[in-house]
Amino acid sequence: MRHIRLGVNIDHVATVRNARGGSYPDPVRAAEIAIAAGADGITAHLREDRRHIRDADMAELKARLTKPLNFEMAATDEMLAIALAIKPHAVCLVPEKRTEVTTEGGLDVIGGQAHLKPYIAKLRDAGIRVSLFIDPDVKQLDMAKALGAPVVELHTGSYAHHTGDSHELKRLVSAAVHTGRLGLECHAGHGLTTDNVGPIAAIKDIVELNIGHFLIGEAIMVGLPQAIRDMRAAIDRAAN
Ligand code: PXP
Fold first, then answer.
1. Could you say which of 17, 70, 91, 111 has the lowest number of CB atoms within 10 Å?
2. Annotation says 185 is catalytic
3. Is this structure's pTM higher than 0.70?
4. Which CATH number covers residue 9?
């Protein structure tokens, strides 16, 4: 049976916590519950404005989790220093704009190659697995390879917003196939739900999916363990 790793993004547990400025719900406890329910790893995005996850959350996640931590961050010196101190299993470099509601597009790896290259090298030298969050674009993938990133995460946001649009799905399929040719490990995520994850999980080259907002929203309705089990089942049905 093909097992696609499910990375659960717990950012929005922190969003709810921060709405009242207290200490609950605790994103680290949510991460532990997610792992007990079948998550293969935990993803968290320390944004420059700390709107959800905070520095102390990242440190606690690294200290307490029994599964890999995927630290999403912008390529800035401040974030690099934090990542090198925390030493997560993986870092996913993402573009970040203060005014955006969420990560709206992939990194421009081609335009930003000179900026990104030293970040990728320093993280790799520290033994951290580096992935680049990019749109499903073959030229961007070629540059990710040239810059020495071993992993790419394909941005599924356009697909998710236009589910049923076969053009967006075809772009993702072609990009995923191209990662295989380049010898890059292929992840995907953004905007995925139990309703739209199937065609993505069916793409053979994809080995990991990172899913957050939908799962945390569902957790309000059915509980986090059930939300994760439902997602796991939807992924497994499509992958096999
Ligand atoms: N992957 C990356 C790189 C992201 O930035 C995000 C959003 O933080 C996700 C996956 C998860 O997206 P969503 O919360 O829409 O499931």
1. 111
2. no
3. yes
4. 3.20.20.70
HSE (CB half, 13 Å, CA atoms) of 8?
Answer: 33
| Position 232 pLDDT exceeds 90 | yes
Considering the candidates 72, 153, 168, 208, report the single residue annotated as catalytic. Answer: 72
Number of compact structural domains in the chain: 1
Residue 204 has pLDDT above 80, yes or no: yes
**pLDDT tens string 83-112:** 999 999 999 999 987 667 776 789 999 999
Ligand 1 atom closest to Cα of residue 213: 14
Supply angle C-alpha 164, 167, 172, rounded to 5: 100
Give me the chain's average pLDDT, please.
96
Cα-to-centroid distance, 81 and ligand 1 (Å): 22
C-alpha 45 to ligand 1 mean position (Å): 9
Among 210, 213, 235, which is best to mutate for testing ligand 1, by the most ligand atoms less than 8 A from CB? 210
Ligand 1 centre distance from Cα of residue 210 (Å): 6
Q: Which domain holds residue 221?
A: 5-239
